[in-house]
Amino acid sequence: MGQSMTKFHATGTQGMTFDGTTADLLLSDNGKVFRITVPLANLKTGSDLRDRHMLTALEVATYPSTLLTVVRSDLKFPPAGGTVSATISGTYSLHGVSVRKTVNYTATTEGDHMRIVATFPVDMTAHAIPQPAYLGVRVDKDVQVTVNFAVK
User: N or C: more exposed end of the chain, with fewer CB within 10 A?
Assistant: First the structure.
């Protein structure tokens, strides 16, 4: 089915840009609510120093994961062998703060499973996370998140 991946893209002052990724992703579906939980401890950006700063800013010891919850009946599913692109509203929780979130997604059937790629912006300040800064370089408050996973 292929590997799951969560990615964020951040920009900042002085032309800074970087991505963070983790393959840690947990899915649950009770028939009514679909939940995507991403543990944050293994989120990596390619820089050990930046990773330490990021995990400290996210207070991962206190808030170890992020969660996106959507109502299953609101999801649109593609026909066999097809693709559907849609927008859904859900609840996104990060750093102990939950907000309503609009998520764009594409779902494609691939044999016996479905590949879903969802994207949405996250305003870190809306989740009580101060904008990280180091040596005069500040990360923008808005980060783009992409979640890519397969389900049966």
Answer: C
